[in-house]
Amino acid sequence: LEVEGTLWDKLIRHEPPESLRPRPPVVTVLGHVDHGKTTLLDAIRQANVVGDEYGGITQHISAYQVERDGRKITFLDTPGHEAFTAMRARGAQVTDLAVLVVAADDGLMPQTREAIDHARAADVPILVALNKMDKPTAQPDRVKQQLADLNLTVEEWGGDVICVPVSALQNQGIEELLESILVLTEMAELRSNPDRPVVGTVIEGQLDRQRGPTATLLVQGGTLRVGDALLVGAISGRVRAMLDHRGEPVSEAPPAMPVLVMGLSEVPKAGDIFRQVESEREARALAEDAAERQRLALDRPTSAPGIVSLEDIFSRLQAGEVQELNLVLKADVQGSMEPIVNSIERLGSEDQEVRILHQGVGRITESDIMLASASNAIVVGFHVDVDEAARRTASQEGVEIRLYNIIYKLVEDVDKALRGMLE
Ligand code: GDP
After folding, report:
1. DSSP secondary structure, 19-63, as one string
2. Is 257 within 8 Å of 74 (Cβ atoms)?
3. CB atoms closer than 10 angstroms to residue 280
């Protein structure tokens, strides 16, 4: 499953190397509520708007691009790890880099830790934006210490994590932040083929009262042009018009460029893959086929699509399909978390490991379920309950939740799952 990689990875693997060209990075902003994600995204957007460029049609597009010395960066405009992981659960991992916003006066909070774990589970590198540095109560060293405690040691302390002090509110440090993003992602040598048939991911779909179905599309391979015929699952269309994030009409969108597209027959869902087909007629025919297949599949009684249970994981471990048992662990208090983690980490063998993607104190939430769904993990709770939304999402996503009140029972079950002895 995971071996497959992202659409970016697949596109690189299947294209002739000489066809690949550098492409801009796609960046997501994560962090605790109120630490300044939205303000930072606004500041970055504004830093790059030159005078009268702001004349375009007002419209909503959920991603934007900024440019520095001819080098572009794409920002997804839906901040937070919930959105990030929800996309990932749908198989849409488009982010190359996570900017973790930490308010320097507040320090690392529960959702900061969650965000770190979500980025790590996705194998997405983290760059820290130390925000609210204008505040007299800012304590940058305290934050750096807290980061070091989570194995995110900043460069100036001998680690490899870039940390840029900023004030999103006062527009300070924004240029340095953009520069750091470019330095970091240039090392990653991000590439794509701009001359193949277009393929990419739907970032968001919207029904516009005047324009009908619209969608923010992120092009990942090829170059999208007005007039191209597209297929998105069971939805067909032809690109009638394309707008950039300023609302300006554009005729072409190369890899990593987000555009608002008009001309689809219906509103697609975030995370859907779109691809170019020969003609609108072919798109329509393929869309009808897909709709028919979906209808037939719905008529059949099925279990949830991506069902992940301990038993299921075991059979996959046995078959050699997976080498890890991924867990999301929630406990009532930190005091019970530690002995659980210590015991679990001792389990497993060289080729069959237990990996704790996230551990947190408190009830099981929707964000835990989405993380588990995106990473084929089991959610294990100790002396905690499950909130209503989480329960609903778990059954939709087919994520198993196991609740325990006795530590050794919990550890024993994980051990049994690894050994294939779970009843
Ligand atoms: P989000 O929940 O992470 O998106 O946070 P917001 O961007 O909504 O910011 C939360 C609050 O912090 C708002 O009142 C912002 O004005 C304020 N804020 C954001 N950045 C800064 C900053 O750099 N300095 C100060 N002093 N306040 C900031």
Report:
1. G-EE---EEEEEESTTSSHHHHHHHHHHHT--GGGTTSPP---SE
2. yes
3. 18
How many other CB atoms are there within 10 angstroms of residue 86's CB atom? 22
Token pair recorded at residue 388: 């209503």
Asked if residue 199 has pLDDT above 70, the reply is yes
**Separation between Cα atoms, residue 398 and residue 394, nearest integer Å:** 6
**Measured distance CA(363)–CA(353) in Å, rounded:** 26
Burial class (CB in 10 A: 0-12, 13-18, 19+), 221: buried
* Per-residue confidence (pLDDT) for residue 209, from 0 to 100: 87
The alpha carbon of 37 and the centre of ligand 1 are apart by a number of angstroms equal to 7
Q: What residue has token string 């090829």?
A: 222
C-alpha to C-alpha distances, 89 to 94, 228, 254, 317, 376, nearest whole angstrom: 12, 29, 26, 21, 9
Q: Is the pLDDT of residue 421 over 70?
A: no
| Ligand 1 center–CA 14 separation, angstroms | 43
Instruction: Considering only CA atoms, give the Rg of the chain.
Output: 23
Q: Which atom of ligand 1 is nearest to the CA of 168?
A: 23
266 CA to centre of ligand 1 in angstroms: 36
For residues 53 and 415, give the distance between their C-alpha atoms in angstroms, rounded to a whole number.
60
- pLDDT class of 289 with cuts at 50, 70, 90: confident
Is the whole-model pTM more than 0.90? no
Nearest to 44 by CA among 171, 130, 180: 171
Cβ(166)–Cβ(173) below 8 Å: yes
Hey, what amino acid is at 396? Q
Structure tokens, 321: 């399909």
Please write down the long-range contacts of 242-251, taking CB distance under 8 Å and 24 or more positions apart.
243/56, 243/57, 243/59, 243/61, 244/61, 244/65, 245/45, 245/61, 245/63, 245/64, 245/65, 246/49, 246/53, 246/54, 246/56, 247/56, 247/57, 247/58, 247/59, 247/61, 248/53, 248/56, 251/225, 251/226
| Residue 186, C-beta contacts closer than 8 angstroms, at least 6 positions apart | none
Q: Whose CA is nearest to atom 20 of ligand 1?
A: 36
Please choose, from the candidates 138, 142, 147, the residue with its C-alpha nearest in 3D space to the C-alpha of residue 119: 147
Q: From the CB of residue 25, how many other CB atoms can be counted at a distance below 10 Å?
A: 20
CB 356 within 8 A of CB 121: no
Q: Whose CA is nearest to atom 18 of ligand 1?
A: 36
Q: What is the dihedral of CA 193, 194, 196, 199, to 10 degrees?
A: 90
